[in-house]
Amino acid sequence: MSKRVASPAPAPERTPTDWKSAAMQKRIRRRYARERRFKLFGMMAVILSAAFLAFLIATMMANGARGFTRSEVALHFDFPKLGIEIDRSHLKTPGADLALAGAGLQDKVETLATSPAGYSLASNSAWVTVRDRIKAHPAILDGKATIWVPASTELEMGSRGEGPANVQADARKLSQAGQLRTGFNWGFFSASNSNDPVAVGIWGALKGSLLTMLVTFLIAFPVGVLSAIYLEEYAPKNRWTDLIEVSINNLAAVPSIIFGLLGLAVFLGSWQIGGHTFGPLFPRSAAIVGGLTLALMIMPVIVIASRNAIKGVPPSIRDAALGIGASRIQVVFHHVLPLAMPGILTGTIIGMARALGETAPLLLIGMRAFIVTPPSGFTDPATVLPVQIFLWSDEVSRGFVEKTSAAILVLLVFLLAMNGLAIYLRNKFETRW
Amino acid sequence: MNVFALLFVVVGLGLIGWLTARARAVRFDRGGQKRLHSLPSQHGWYVAMWTVLPALLFIAVWSALSPALIKDQVLKSPAASQLSDFAFERDTILGEARDVALGRADATFDDTATALVEPMRAAIAFYGWTGTGIAILLAFAGGAFAFTRTSPTFRARTRVERGLMLILLLASLIAILTTVGIFLSLFWESMRFFAMVPPQDFLFSTHWSPQLIDPNNPGKSLGAVPLFWGTFFIGAVIAMLVAIPFGLMSAIYLTQYAAPRVRRWMKPLLEILAGVPTVVYGYFAALTVAPAVRNLAVFLGMPFASAESALAAGLVMGVMIIPFVSSLADDSIAAVPTAMRDGSLAMGATNSETISRVLLPAALPGVVAGVLLAVSRAIGETMIVVMAASGAANITLNPFESATTVTKQIVDLLTGESEFDSPKTLAAFALGLTLFVITLLLNIVALRVVKKYREAYE
């Protein structure tokens, strides 16, 4: 630097600011008011967001609480008078259902359940309850019996003080006579889908979710953890590993519905190889296809979480293990992995929670079928809880609103429990090195 | 044999191999001979690997191939001569026969299918047992080969670790395979679509009505511009108008103003919003928000307002995105050096002036990237629009009118009919490809922005 540094010019003469002047006071007041407004906006943003969550959960609870209860109405049967023509010996055979249906049981129950005003007191599926009772106790066919059957939607609403006035009056009369009772709806947890909102349950969907999640976990967890180990501990830095990293980060941001298209094309599409057409690899609507699709979807989540957990293990642990003669594989599998496990599990649980709540990809691979019998294996047609919620939300019948909200509450409880577990694990095993 | 039973048997054989090889290695050790190169359990793993892996590989290939082989053999049987040449009908009949042969159904509807049950059963049994036999043979052969190699000097550890390394590499390749699989499957089906519909019709024409496709000119009713507009309008405009101010302001409040205790409680609470399944948001939007929006529209003087307005779907989607924007904004504000904040405060600026004139401009790249990621999340969101938005493709600026999105149309096109070759179903894959490319670009741009400006303060 040949140039000489100029000495600083003397500060220009200036009258000092008069902070007490009216103009300055006003300016400060204005600035402070803006500060308060800004803070208020921030607070409002937080409060409104929380309020929305509260409102959402409150709405679901208000609607869903009734989904967990159900009303039953007592029907008095005089079986000899009803004239059900059936051979008693049939009742213990597998054909009993068909025989009782053939004897016109459904019509007779419906006639009996029709109120004087012309609407039905019992639900459409009431005769199934009667049928099962007859099968369990054939002796009741010889005399009179009182059987509690699910009440119809009209009567159930009437008993809550909704709907037409005459139905409400009937409901009051019936419950005073001890012929109408409301209790916890255990059937909601043991039954499967049905056309009748009174008889539906979530067991089939829950079981489908369980099977799907099992497949997802068995694929995504090992693959995700192993590839995280490779990328974090062994991978050389070259274009291949860069490509792997980029694709994992991109996969994490791909919309879930794209994975549905992938599942549809790969697992359910047909392949042409060497003149042969290889039909779909898996049956439609099966838990195994859903599980595979969701596994591909959450794998990046598990990889990213596992990598962070593995990165968090200090190098001194590795150096110490290497120093006493462990091989590079032993260092990772005996020392690094156990220490990173809490973080890996937390990430896995969060990924599984995401898979449990996912709907869109499963719609595309056909898990939206009407499933009446719960799936008993990975290749049976199945549906999952979120898809069941979606299907019920499409139903027009009023009774399904409550059931949908009740199913949503069950799903939210599962998800909250999983997220709670993840947070607990993180707090309990979090190590500050 | 059932595939799961077979897997069980193979893994069981692997366990037996592990135990015997380990026992043998332990005896080497005790015999007072030379010292072993590897630990006994490593010899065990070596044998187990050779037992299980070839058999597993074979089972995977076989279960993919055998349906086609079974079909070929059944088609060769005399009963199959009556089958029609029409592939779809033939597959239905074969499917019926297979269900009966496997005991999934009691009887067939079609007489041809009844005749095919026996050949089908024979073919399934033949290929099933052949596969089982080969798999078990492979397991034994692999195990025996490995077992004969165990000796005190055998370097089992090196071999096992090399094998394990290969497995690790394969696991990490699955991510690439998935990406390539997504791209190829979307690209392949889209090419078939564009063979029927000219790309310029699909990309630039403004009429979308897949229910009424003219078979001679399918491009006329498959113009996707209204879908792109609806997706942009709902996901990138309405949802962001909710998510950006709320997300940004709550991030600012929670990081700059709130007491630590409030922050500790409110942050996870907001994150619950991100954990609520989208089907729940969709139901909420359809059940509660959409009627409210419609009432508002009627109140504002639009008596024929749609009950499936763009506004309802966009609002709820925006709420869903709030925690996403908030946590990304939180990160980028936290990355601004404290010195800048302290300097501004020391000059006499109020908190809000510091935030809006110093912190936010400095954090802007991160915030912009966060917004881009949020947009990519919003336009890929499916369930909310499937349940709350309408299927009517309109190009409109009025949020109270109905609009439809790419994701909703994908679901609508693919549920219902199962025919795989019509322009209607293939259009879903073309839409999927468009969606994939756009979200990919948004992500790449977002990551670039972050990477480029992050170094500024480090």
TrEMBL record, chain A:
GO MF, one example: phosphate transmembrane transporter activity
Keyword set, alphabetical order: Cell membrane, Membrane, Transmembrane, Transmembrane helix, Transport
GO cellular component: plasma membrane
Chief location bin: membrane
GO aspect biological process, one term: phosphate ion transmembrane transport
UniProt superkingdom: Bacteria
TM region(s), chain numbering: 40-62, 210-231, 251-274, 286-310, 331-353, 406-425
Compartments it resides in: Cell inner membrane; Cell membrane
Record membrane topology: Multi-pass membrane protein
UniProt cross-references to InterPro entries, sorted A to Z: DUF3333 (IPR024573), MetI-like (IPR000515), MetI-like_sf (IPR035906), Phosphate_PstA (IPR005672)
Domain ABC transmembrane type-1: 206-422
Region (Disordered), start-end ranges: 1-22
Recorded family membership: Belongs to the binding-protein-dependent transport system permease family. CysTW subfamily.
NCBIfam families assigned to the protein according to its UniProt record, in alphabetical order: 3a0107s02c
Name of the protein this chain belongs to: Phosphate transport system permease protein PstA
TrEMBL record, chain B:
Protein name: Phosphate transport system permease protein
Gene3D superfamilies: MetI-like (1.10.3720.10)
Biological role stated in the UniProt entry: Part of the binding-protein-dependent transport system for phosphate; probably responsible for the translocation of the substrate across the membrane.
Organism whose genome encodes this protein: Sphingomonas kyeonggiensis
MF-aspect GO terms: phosphate transmembrane transporter activity
Keyword Transmembrane tagged: yes
Family stated for the protein in its record: Belongs to the binding-protein-dependent transport system permease family. CysTW subfamily.
GO biological process per UniProt: phosphate ion transport
Keyword terms, alphabetized: Cell inner membrane, Cell membrane, Membrane, Phosphate transport, Transmembrane, Transmembrane helix, Transport
SUPFAM superfamilies: MetI-like
